[in-house]
């Protein structure tokens, strides 16, 4: 997969997972969709900047556009790279038009939007997104975003989650569980020529990986889920075909790697002060650009970015 396809896959995997309750919960992100501070921020933005046409870049499930209360807003447009996200956004927000596209290449007319917004979103698309935002905005239109910030509480949380995921992958837990369980089942069902002693090195290998997962389990819900799920399947192996157990383990492996991809993307997307300023200056000029830290409870979680589109 090329990197755009990979990102689409990682995010679609996330948005699809939201509808599968158990997986969705274990692989959940920092809860931004239901946060009161973010909700009241966006409600006041939409009150202060009445707009005919609003575009939300990297809209996810539509958590920003759901706060548009102005009946005069004629067009609510959500853009996201993930089809799964767009499907949820369209279902969540009445009147929303969803577009599956990268935020760097939005199939909409130039100078057509009064307001372009984004919440932990546009920065995933990289620096080119600033010129696309400038292209989409009418002169005098506003860009307002809450964006990932380097060294924010969210970035630190992503880093710590990423470290846990790397340990899970490095332990080769899934690979080792598959080899061990396949051989034990074959042995127990008389389908192998191996002796019980031949299985010992496989069990030792697996135990080593298991120790890593157990050591992570207290703070890492994915490690707990993987460990307890594997344990349950192993204990009930007489009721399963090996391929069913393998299917679950392969599914978990994919989830872990997609989750790791999302954590890496978030860390890469986080903006330093100078990167954020540079982005804003592509849209507006100096006095029309403002930035400030955004707090949830008392933690700084990101940047508030605002720029007014200059004359063209
Ligand atoms: C952290 S989520 C935020 C979603 C939403 N704005 C919210 O706050 O709930 C990041 C979103 O960016 C989307 N995304 C990632 N890369 C993108 C790109 N290049 N163009 C458009 N959307 C992208 C993902 O699919 C995902 O929905």
Quick rundown:
This protein has 312 residues and is of the alpha/beta class. The chain is built from 11 helices and 7 strands. It folds into 2 domains: 31-150 and 270-308, Rossmann fold (3-Layer(aba) Sandwich); 154-266, no CATH class.
Describe this structure in words.
There is one protein chain. With 312 residues, the chain is an alpha/beta fold. It has two domains: 31-150 and 270-308, Vaccinia Virus protein VP39 (Rossmann fold); 154-266, no CATH class. The chain is 51% helix and 17% strand. The chain contains eleven helices and seven strands. Strands 3-2-1-4-5-7-6 form a seven-stranded mixed beta sheet, with helices on both faces. Strand 2 (75-80), helix 4 (83-92) and strand 3 form a beta-alpha-beta unit. Helix 5 runs parallel beside helix 11, helix 6 runs antiparallel to helix 8 (200-217) and helix 8 runs antiparallel to helix 9 (221-235). The protein is elongated. The two termini are 38 Å apart. Residues 19-30 have low confidence and may be disordered. The structure holds S-adenosylmethionine. The site of S-adenosylmethionine has 21 residues, from helix 1.
Q: Topology, pairings included?
A:
Layout: H1 3-17, H2 21-26, H3 36-48, E1 53-57, E2 75-80, H4 83-92, E3 96-100, E4 113-119, H5 129-136, E5 137-148, H6 153-171, H7 173-188, H8 200-217, H9 221-235, H10 242-269, H11 273-283, E6 289-296, E7 299-308
Parallel strand pairs: 1-2, 1-4, 2-3, 4-5
Antiparallel strand pairs: 5-7, 6-7
The structure holds S-adenosylmethionine.
């Amino acid at each position: 997969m090329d990197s755009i396809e990979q990102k689409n896959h990682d995010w679609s995997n996330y948005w699809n997972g939201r509808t599968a309750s158990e997986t969705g919960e274990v692989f959940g992100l920092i809860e931004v969709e239901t946060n009161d501070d973010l909700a009241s921020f966006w409600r006041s933005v939409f009150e202060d900047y009445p707009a005919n046409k609003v575009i939300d870049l990297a809209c996810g499930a539509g958590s920003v556009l759901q706060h548009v209360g102005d009946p005069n807003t004629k067009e609510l447009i959500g853009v996201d790279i993930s089809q799964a996200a767009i499907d949820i956004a369209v279902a969540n927000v009445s009147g929303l038009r969803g577009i599956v596209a990268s935020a760097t290449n939005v199939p909409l007319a130039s100078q057509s939007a009064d307001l372009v917004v984004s919440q932990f979103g546009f920065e995933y698309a990289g620096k080119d997104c600033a010129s696309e935002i400038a292209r989409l905005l009418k002169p005098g239109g506003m860009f307002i975003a809450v964006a990932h910030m380097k060294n924010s509480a969210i970035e630190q949380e992503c880093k710590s989650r990423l470290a846990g995921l790397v340990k899970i992958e490095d332990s080769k837990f899934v690979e080792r569980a598959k080899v061990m369980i396949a051989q034990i089942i074959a042995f127990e069902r008389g389908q192998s020529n191996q002796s019980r002693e031949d299985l010992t090195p496989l069990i030792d290998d697996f135990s080593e990986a298991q120790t890593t997962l157990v050591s992570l389990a207290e703070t890492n819900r994915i490690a707990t889920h993987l460990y307890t799920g594997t344990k349950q399947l192993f204990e009930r192996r007489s009721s399963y075909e090996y391929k069913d157990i393998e299917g679950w383990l392969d599914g978990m492996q994919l989830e872990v790697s997609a989750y790791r991809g999302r954590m890496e993307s978030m860390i890469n997307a986080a903006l330093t002060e100078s990167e954020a300023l540079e982005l804003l200056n592509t849209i507006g000029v100096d006095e029309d650009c403002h930035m400030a830290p955004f707090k949830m409870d008392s933690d700084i979680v990101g940047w508030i970015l605002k720029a007014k589109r200059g004359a063209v």
